[in-house]
Specification:
15 helices, Aminopeptidase, 15-stranded mixed beta sheet, elongated, 395 residues, alpha+beta
């Protein structure tokens, strides 16, 4: 272990070999018969030996030091979500996580390249004689934060094992990691599966779904799959709103709207979310959180706005973030007085029309399962709550 005073972090150099985690790499009798000279070295040269350096950061200033490498890793992980970005996690540490709550951000490097990252919050500790067990959790909020799993570059799944071992050395305890609302594809669960479930294992405690829409068709092909009654209703509602004034759609990463975040927050707060206290503006910390994160997202042209105006009045809006050609529709809102005209559905209809036309995104994720989306015929993607632990406890 090494300590860097300048950036207030600890370094761990972890050597990963196949003997630790991949039992199936042992040579079979058939392989030995076919090639008497074969060894584990020449059968699996890429997996036999890998040196990974793990750096553990526990303060926000040091975290910023790796922000660029973090965003590069995010783009190298196809299944990454905006909640796994530096922009979002940094904002959460400022406005959502209590200042006295211990957290650990683990960075895994292979040949000076960031190949893994794991953000964890300390929860509790238990002792069984000389054995200490520490429980950690991922960042999660039912209001706005899901998918916060480890980022692991494909081909470097060993980085997850290295980060776990570094955390064990650093805390001098056996870590158990509880994760909520993470995807089965990509991240920690895929890494554990690809390594044969030998060093680390996981147990799923509950499973649920989120709605997603794959963008593979032309607008005509996609809309032809929707019920004709629903399509007619959308056009009827659009005509009814058009009778009240000129309709205008503002859709894209840049829109002709002054301070779009403020406009969106007003829209969302004006409806039932505001009355029930579930809007962003109903919670001061959440408003500050989104303001800081969206400002950072906009610097990288990651924010996708969508607004529907009647004359000069915004009646529906969407806040989305784009990562790796996937549009995550994070928040939606509309003015309550126009609810009977379905402005939210009409806006989504036109947004999907544009996306299918331009093919600028390969998928739309709604980050939740929403009953009102069923007419748009999304598919389901599984999210799980799980616990990750050492495969052979106490060793």
């Amino acid at each position: 272990m090494l300590f860097n005073k300048k950036h207030n972090m600890e370094y761990y150099k972890i050597i990963i070999t196949t003997k630790i985690f991949r039992e199936k790499n042992t040579i079979t009798k058939k392989e030995k018969t076919e090639n008497p000279r074969c060894t584990r070295h020449n059968l699996y040269p890429k997996l036999f030996h890998m040196s990974i350096s793990v750096k553990i950061v526990q303060d926000k200033e040091s975290l910023q030091h790796y922000s660029r490498e973090w965003e590069t890793l995010l783009s190298d992980c196809p299944s990454a979500a905006p909640t796994q970005s530096y922009a979002w996690i940094s904002a959460m540490l400022s406005h959502d996580i209590p200042s006295d709550c211990p957290w650990y951000c683990l960075f895994a490097f292979a040949d000076s390249r960031l190949v893994g990252l794991w953000m964890l919050i300390f929860e509790s500790e238990r002792k069984f004689g000389p054995i200490r067990i520490k429980r950690f959790r991922n960042l999660y909020s039912g209001f706005h934060t899901t998918h916060v799993d480890a980022l692991v570059m494909k081909g470097y799944e060993q980085a997850l094992v290295a980060m776990y071992r570094a955390l064990k050395k650093h805390t001098k305890a056996i870590p158990i990691v509880a994760s909520k609302a993470i995807a089965m594809e990509g991240g920690s669960l895929s890494a554990i599966q690809s390594l044969g479930n030998v060093f680390l294992q996981y147990k799923i405690s509950s499973a649920y779904h989120e709605d997603v829409l794959e963008i593979t068709q032309s607008p005509e092909q996609y809309f032809s799959t929707l019920k004709s009654k629903f399509r007619r209703e959308i056009h009827r509602q659009e005509r009814n709103m058009g009778a009240l004034g000129t309709l205008r759609y503002e859709i894209g990463t840049t829109v002709g709207v002054d301070d779009p975040l403020s406009v969106f927050l007003d829209l969302e707060h004006s409806g039932w979310k505001g009355r029930e206290g579930t809007s962003i503006r109903a919670h001061l910390n959440d408003e500050q959180l989104f303001c800081e994160a969206v400002q950072d997202f906009e610097k990288h042209s990651m924010v996708h706005w969508a607004f529907l105006y009647i004359g000069d009045k915004a009646v529906a809006g969407q806040l989305g973030v784009v990562v790796n050609a996937v549009l995550y529709l994070w928040k939606v809102g509309y003015r309550q007085e126009y609810a009977t005209m379905g402005p939210g559905n009409v806006l989504l209809y036109r947004v999907l029309e544009q996306i299918h036309q331009t093919r600028q995104y390969r998928k739309v994720s709604f980050m939740n399962e929403r009953s009102w989306l069923s007419p748009f015929q999304p598919t389901k993607q599984q999210l799980v709550d799980c616990t990750i632990y050492r495969a052979i406890p106490f060793l």
